[in-house]
Design a protein that fits this description.
Blueprint lengths: L4 H6 L41 H11 L3 H12 L8 H13 L3 H13 L7 H13 L3 H13 L7 H13 L3 H13 L7 H20 L3 H13 L7 H13 L3 H13 L7 H11 L7 H13 L4 H14 L4 H14 L2 H14 L4 H13 L3 H17 L9 H11 L3
Helix pairs in contact: 2-3, 3-4, 4-5, 5-6, 6-7, 7-8, 8-9, 9-10, 10-11, 11-12, 12-13, 13-14, 14-15, 15-16, 15-17, 16-17, 17-18, 18-19, 19-20, 20-21
Length: 415
């Protein structure tokens, strides 16, 4: 899940965190209320802000007030006073963190985590998060838990993730309550305990409902996922779809992706592949869209023979992100084949088969391409291979009933 900074800070409850061992943690130059004159940098133009309160904060930041410096950075990140100024915010946050402000460290860690205004560096994000967590910022514990659970910038450690989720959850962080519940349910980093999972889910449902009512799209999205899984609420795909639709209307791309899945499966809504693609494409309208999501949309479009040019754009982006993934390359080759770019399609398909030698559909597609080029013996060889691979492929990995797929291949073999 892409972190949404506004939500992270909306649920940051100031609390005293327990003492913990020092890891690779950011250490400020000093902890002071006022930045020394020599370290304040160029004076900011406070006239850019329309609101008198922001002009006052800007003036205090110019005078070296550490808290005002962090607050002004947050205003720049929010786009107050003109266009969103991430570079200016990074400068101010770095300065405020150097002089001991934990909220600045937390925001700076979020920027390193997301790669906004700075090169993405989750290890550097973890350093800032640790400092902020030791200063009692639950949102920093939550962010650290996310890094430990995913193994981003730190060695993957489910037990450490659970510890940090617990600190944040106990301070009232709704998303941490939910994620800790999921760890108890799965027995990941903690002993499996359905009773504790349920208790955390119920806490999360209450906290997230308050945030959703206040207008948080991420909270609304998470409530939708809770209805899908029956986490602290009754399992109800229809209610899940309704919650996700509200989150989409509020701008949640994560919700759009899941809602697309529901339309694709006909779960909680009437099955509609066109609607699935529409919602998936909403979710892809960002620079950091995952390769597998790009591939999913490209594959659905080529399956339906709908707008192959659009499918090709998604597929090329996916291959650029995951060039070693034969499944994704197979999608690209199949689109090219249906566009009539036979030579390029064959080159890509042969690479895909080498990358995924156990992929039955890759072999099947290669057979089709050989047949189109008059290489009938090579085509039959690939179809025979596809048939053998299909029999070894688990049902869970097949998109359609096995018998239907078997008939598709055997028909080409004249059986």
């Amino acid at each position: 899940m892409r972190r949404i900074m506004a939500v992270v800070f909306a649920v940051a409850v100031l609390a005293t965190a327990p003492a913990r061992s020092a890891e690779d943690e950011f250490v400020p130059d000093a902890t002071v209320d006022e930045i020394p004159p020599a370290e304040r940098g160029a004076e900011l133009d406070c006239s850019r802000f329309d609101e008198a309160e922001l002009r006052t904060i800007c003036g205090r930041a110019n005078d070296g007030d550490v808290l005002a410096t962090a607050g002004l950075a947050q205003a720049l990140l929010a786009g107050l006073g003109g266009a969103r100024d991430v570079d200016g915010a990074v400068t101010l946050l770095t300065r405020a963190a150097r002089f001991g402000n934990p909220d600045a460290a937390l925001m700076l860690g979020s920027l390193y985590d997301a790669g906004e205004g700075v090169a993405a560096n989750p290890a550097e994000a973890a350093r800032y998060y640790r400092f902020a967590a030791r200063a009692g910022r639950p949102a920093a514990d939550f962010a650290l838990a996310m890094l430990y659970e995913g193994g981003r910038g730190v060695t993957q450690d489910f037990a450490a993730a659970a510890r940090h989720y617990r600190v944040a959850a106990d301070a009232g962080h709704g998303i941490a309550q939910l994620f800790l519940g999921r760890m108890y349910r799965a027995g990941r980093g903690v002993p499996a305990d359905e009773a504790l999972a349920g208790a955390r889910f119920r806490e999360a449902a209450e906290t997230l409902a308050e945030l959703a009512e206040a207008g948080s799209p991420e909270a609304r999205y998470l409530i939708g996922t809770m209805y899908l899984a029956g986490e602290g609420v009754p399992q109800d795909p229809h209610q899940a779809a309704a919650e996700l639709a509200q989150a989409v209307d509020q701008g949640s791309r994560e919700a759009a992706s899941v809602l697309g899945d529901l339309y694709d499966d006909g779960r909680g809504v009437e099955r509609d592949r066109d609607e699935a693609i529409r919602f998936w494409e909403m979710a892809l309208d960002r620079d950091d869209a995952p390769a597998e999501d790009l591939n999913r949309v490209a594959w659905r479009l080529v399956e339906q023979r709908a707008d192959l040019d659009r499918a090709l754009r998604w597929a090329r982006r996916a291959v650029a992100l995951a060039p070693q993934d034969g499944n994704i390359r197979d999608t690209l080759a199949w689109i090219l084949f249906h566009q009539g770019a036979r030579e390029e399609a064959l080159r890509e398909q042969e690479v895909a088969v080498r990358q995924m030698p156990e992929c039955w559909e890759c072999a099947d597609h290669l057979g089709d391409m050989y047949a189109a080029g008059g290489r009938n013996d090579d085509a039959r060889s690939q179809w025979e291979r596809a048939l053998a691979l299909l029999e070894r492929t688990p049902d869970a990995q097949l998109e359609h009933p096995r018998e239907r797929l078997r008939e598709r291949v055997t028909r080409k073999l004249g059986r």
